[in-house]
Amino acid sequence: MITLIKEVMLMSFLIPEAIASAGDPAQGNPYSMIIMLVVFGLIFYFMILRPQQKRTKEHKKLMDSIAKGDEVLTTGGFLGRVIKIAETGYIVIALNDTTEVMIKRDFVAAVLPKGTMKAL
């Protein structure tokens, strides 16, 4: 029992010394955090935002280039020929001689070369 009390007293003396020996955390350059945030911001911009803006610009250019008679592939996988373009942003696509589908212009994935439908 006495040894246990001695150990507890010894521990009570050592714990504050251990905390004191840890000291204050090292103080670095206050501008290092700002520089690191700027570097991460640049990485984020060049790896994520800029390529996405580029893809959006190319897709908008594709949407504006759709004309009557173009063969298109939709995001749903339909392949057809544009037969009518509405001013409201919709287009009518002929999938075959008897089937026509009206879709939103934004859902065109690609404009295909002429003769693609006949080749299939």
From TrEMBL:
Q: Where in the cell is it found?
A: Cell membrane
Coiled-coil residues are: none
Q: How does it sit in the membrane?
A: Single-pass membrane protein
Q: Which organism is it from?
A: Candidatus Regiella insecticola LSR1
Q: Which residues cross the membrane?
A: 30-49
The family database entries (InterPro entries) matched by this protein are listed as: Preprotein_translocase_YajC
- Note the SMART domains from the entry: YajC
| Organism classification | Bacteria, Pseudomonadati, Pseudomonadota, Gammaproteobacteria, Enterobacterales
Query: What protein name is recorded for this chain?
Result: Sec translocon accessory complex subunit YajC
Could you state one GO cellular component term attached to this entry? plasma membrane
Concerning NCBIfam families, the annotation shows: yajC
One Pfam match, given by its short name, reads YajC
